[in-house]
Design a protein that fits this description.
Keywords: Membrane, Transmembrane, Transmembrane helix. The chain crosses the membrane at residues 64-83, 95-112. Helices cover 71% and strands 0% of the residues. It has six helices and no strands. It has helices at 3-29, 47-56, 64-80, 86-107, 117-128, 131-149.
């Protein structure tokens, strides 16, 4: 496999991972999931909250605005052009990754019943699935930058 084929294969994987992250984030924020979950909190507008409340039977507060920040950060990364300049954009990816970790951390402290640690863990797990494609994109971007060092 030539360097160009290797570069193109990694580039398409990075684009796919970033698009999958955006899809997961938008799906998580989708108003399609405005489903009643409890008497204390009648509606939820994100998928991870709804899934958590469905499994645990507990109402969570809405974290829609935090997830919108994640979408905007991801769009900034795409505007930077991860494929064209991996050195500059690896920092954009790292920033987005750490910001996403912070958003997940912050949203898990908005729970109505904070004494239930298993519900916090479950909600965090559903939200953390979105980090997988972002981590893959970060790893592949690092691999893409390696031949340029030689």
């Amino acid at each position: 496999m030539s360097i160009i084929e290797w570069h193109n294969r990694l580039s398409s994987k990075i684009r796919g991972a970033l698009l999958f992250f955006i899809l997961l984030t938008i799906l998580d924020n989708s108003t399609l999931f405005n489903i009643p979950i409890s008497d204390t909190f009648p509606f939820s507008s994100n998928l991870s909250t709804w899934l958590s409340s469905l499994v645990m039977g507990i109402g969570f507060t809405d974290s829609f605005s935090f997830h919108l920040i994640t979408v905007h950060l991801m769009l900034i990364v795409l505007l930077f052009g991860v494929i064209k300049d991996p050195f500059r954009n690896i920092w954009a990816l790292r920033f987005t990754l750490f910001a996403s970790f912070f958003i997940i951390f912050a949203t898990n402290y908005q729970i109505i019943e904070p004494s239930n640690s298993s519900s916090v863990l479950l909600n965090g797990t559903f939200q953390s699935i979105k980090l997988i494609p972002l981590l893959l994109a970060h790893q592949w971007t690092k691999q893409l930058a390696i031949p340029a060092l030689i």
